[in-house]
């Protein structure tokens, strides 16, 4: 658990540096949040931004942060950007994120 927390702390800090005040919320979800992950499980992370003009540009930026951590730690982070108002949407994915998510 300590290694997982260290990886997630680094990822959050890197996102803070990248986005500053645009970073509204970062939520771990999936098997790592539920506590039933295998050692080789990836990290599913939703990145909520106050301003999301070009989603694919943000996907690339976040992927760069995740790639640096992969190189350094071997951890696979699958992170996707969303508008902050998407958190309240009534979709299956957002319901899962709200239900089992762990704020970073």
Overview of this protein structure:
The structure is a single chain. This protein has 104 residues and is of the alpha+beta class. It has a single domain, classed as Beta Polymerase, domain 2. The protein has four helices and four strands. The chain has a four-stranded mixed sheet with strand order 3-2-1-4, with helices on both faces. Helix 3 links the parallel strand 2 (43-49) and strand 3 (77-83). Helix 1 packs antiparallel against helix 3. It is globular, with a radius of gyration of 13 Å. It starts with a helix and ends with a strand. 26% of the residues are buried. The mean pLDDT is 94. It comes from Azospirillum lipoferum. It holds the Pfam family NTP_transf_2. Keywords: Transferase.
Strand order of the largest sheet: 3-2-1-4
Low-confidence stretches: none
- Report the CATH C-level class: Alpha Beta
Measured on Cα atoms, how large is the radius of gyration?
A: 13 Å
Summarize model confidence as the mean pLDDT. 94
Task: Characterize the main sheet.
Answer: 4 strands, mixed
What percent strand?
15-25%
Can you count the helices?
Answer: 4
**CATH fold-level topology:** Beta Polymerase, domain 2
How many discrete structural domains?
Answer: 1
CATH superfamily: Beta Polymerase, domain 2
Give the N-terminus to C-terminus distance in angstroms: 14 Å
Q: Which structural class best describes the helix and strand composition?
A: alpha+beta
